[in-house]
Amino acid sequence: MTTADYQKEAASIPKLPGVYRFIDKDDTIIYVGKAKNLKNRLSSYFGEKKHAAYKTRTMVKNALRFEYLVVDTEHDALLLENTLIKKFQPRYNVMLKDGKSYTYICIKNERFPRIFFTRRVIKDGSTYFGPYTSKFKVSQLLEVIKKLFPLRSCSYLLSESNIEKKKFKVCLEYHIKNCEGPCEGLESEEAYDQKITQVTNILKGQLKPVKEFLKTEMQTNVTELEFEKAQLNKERLGYLEDYHAKSTVVSAHIRDLDVFSILDEEEWAYVSYLKVVNGTLINSDTVELKKNLNTDLKDLLAYTIPELRQKFNSIAPEVIVPMNLKLPEVEAKVIVPQRGEKRKLLDLAEKNLKYFSLQKRKAELNKKQKQTPAERILKTLQSDLQMSEIPYHIECFDNSNIQGSHPVASCVVFKNAKPSKKDYRKFNIKTVIGPDDFASMEEVVRRRYTRLVKEDEPLPQLVVIDGGKGQLSSAHRIMKELGIEEKVTLIGIAKRLEEIFFPEDPIPIYINKKSESLKLIQFARNEAHRFAITFHRNQRSKDFTRSELLDIKGIGKKSVEKLLKEFRSVEKIKQLSLEELKSVVGENAAQKILAYFAQKKDH
Questions:
Q1: N or C: fewer beta carbons within 10 Å in the chain?
Q2: For the residues of 413-466, what is the DSSP string, one character each?
Q3: Is-above-0.85 flag for pTM?
Q4: Which CATH number fits the domain 3-93, given the four candidates 3.40.1440.10, 2.60.40.10, 3.40.50.1260, 1.10.10.10?
């Protein structure tokens, strides 16, 4: 969308709060934003000052139009923006990177429910706790549950009729006291469900009712003179208190709350989450946010908090954050602590973020060290050109002619940052008369990609045009005509200052002269030029060898090359005098040429 397009609608845009959407030619929403003042915000995209961010310029350029919706307050704008981002997931809005596979603890929806860990959530009425970011934490919880409450692990269908018919026999788990034998009716459903209730309390982080349950059981055992069972419950109570002591207890004065902190690093932001239940830290997570056009930390945090609370099923009445935020989707009190235990929790979240960032940088460094030079160069090139995918397949085009004579073009192919010479292609220009580089470029690009599309061959990720904006525009016109401009990144490289141009963008980018990615582009450009020049020379040489002059007895190939280089055509040579011919090939050869053409004329 151009500034001129915007100016046509600018007068009607209100100076009110609202949400705006940029929409591309395919009628797809590519960006959603909110504004206190719609007119001021939208005008910032189309003012005289160019956006420093390449992504912002690209987004505006790819937009065909924009739409806006006026709301009553800035608060309403924030709420609507979040809703639209979640619904449409526009490509230029913030992206929550979360490819991790989490574990859950499942209480199965069945008589005498089993309890186990899983990575799949099935909507069959079962109860799931989690997600847990640490498998060790899950194993620890299941071990605590196993020691406190013997539950079945078999998958028998324990219906009333099956138990009455005595279809099942107790297994080894019963004999080693890991199960109390509900399969043979040795344990009632009511007693079993009481244990499930206490397991649910443990998984919710509510240990106090579990302790009271075990104490009540122990006292009942003593009253009924079941001292062995009383001793067993006493050991269980001690084990539970030991587990509670080893858990990360935040404070006896703090109840349920969620703690969030954020760290800003270039293109990414990281958000740390701590879930505290009954003064105990029971879960934590760190997520990565690809900022794209969203750089305001408050907006990023406001976007992430509802997502994490929903994921971890949190209904905590308090949310601890490092800055004042508006959270229209969160039914909780937002607190920015300055001191005390809640401030210490926020410090803990921030410390976790710093360690996470350090660990990520170390991992990236190790990954780079393990990368091959080709992978490193291609990833750098991807970053420099802001490409969505790594350019493993690159093609570069160049034209060659001398004053319109023997016009040819070349296409060199690079795969994994190395020349793939078996894939090089050369073209004789067929439809262009005279030295017209723009038309020649259109012809070869059309011929190359029409064939690839027709034969369903893979397209390159990157196409480089050796030349300025004119040749780049010619190539881009053909790619649009073939419908592949969105599938391929197209650039032009201008020789003088090594400027990199994108189609329909007058502002070039400059890659560091020492960068490996620029050297790769230059290598492809120079290889295309060399291949085109070589092909051009071969074509001229072939024309020389086919010349009528070689039919003259006593005239050799070198003499023919000298004459054609000097006088360009046989027709012109026929009109030359003896003196003119002598000056190039000597008197003897000149006389033979004159005699040959005189004889042909007589016939």
A1: C
A2: EEETTEE-GGG-EEEE--S--SS-HHHHHHHHHHHHHHHHHHTTPPPPSEEEEE
A3: no
A4: 3.40.1440.10
